[in-house]
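User: structure tokens for ATP-binding cassette domain-containing protein, please.
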Amino acid sequence: MITVTNLTVAYGDLVAVADVSLRVPPGYVLAVSGPSGAGKSSLLWAIAGAVSAKSGSVEVDGLEIVDRPRAAAHGVVLIPQGNGLARVLTARENLSMPLLAERKLPSDDQDRDEALESIDDIIAKALSDVGLEDSGDHLVEELSGGEQQRVAVARGLAQRGKVILADESTSELDSTNRERVLALLRDEADRGAAVIIATHDPSVAAGADGHALMDEGHLSWERRL
Ligand SMILES: Nc1ncnc2c1ncn2[C@@H]1O[C@H](COP(=O)(O)OP(=O)(O)OP(=O)(O)O)[C@@H](O)[C@H]1O
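Assistant: Done. Predicted tokens:
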């Protein structure tokens, strides 16, 4: 459960998120739309622990989110706008980094090999789910914008979070891949994650369980969860 209570995020004097409250239970997909600069990314960053609240709070399953490392360890996955991939690493390496960071590999050689094989399996499935099973060894900078976006989605899915925050994750995709990614995000909700999608696309918002609008940091409801 994502619980945002009277959250305000500010950059100096600029208030990006103004006294926002919302709840997203496990199993639900919330779409957040609104004009450029409305505060959608800032709301997602605050839920991910990547920016601090000026006032108010964010909780995930009762744990207050105070910084990114603890949020990530608690299963809060952010698929950032602009992908956030390391361009000089391969797609597979980009997927492996958060998985390796969150696990302590066993010291025993055989146990370690098994753990690494299981990570390889998770990565192969995530890349296959986004239709990039043959692109794992490509450098990110060799991939198209839409392929990079799908790698970023695969990286998010591979982490099997309890919260998935997808920031404009379909903006560069053709309709087939947009439907594919939306179905994958729906699968995440069906497995028990709470999902928030920031989007400019009305068709993405229409497919969500609820739809919130942001404008100048304020949130209102188009369709409640
Ligand atoms: N790191 C930052 N420092 C200062 N101002 C920022 C920072 N990040 C965002 N802003 C400002 O905060 C406001 C909200 O930005 P935000 O990126 O959250 O909006 P958005 O709704 O996601 O926009 P878009 O749809 O264009 O991605 C904007 O005025 C933006 O310029």
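User: Anything notable?

Assistant: The chain has one domain: 2-223.
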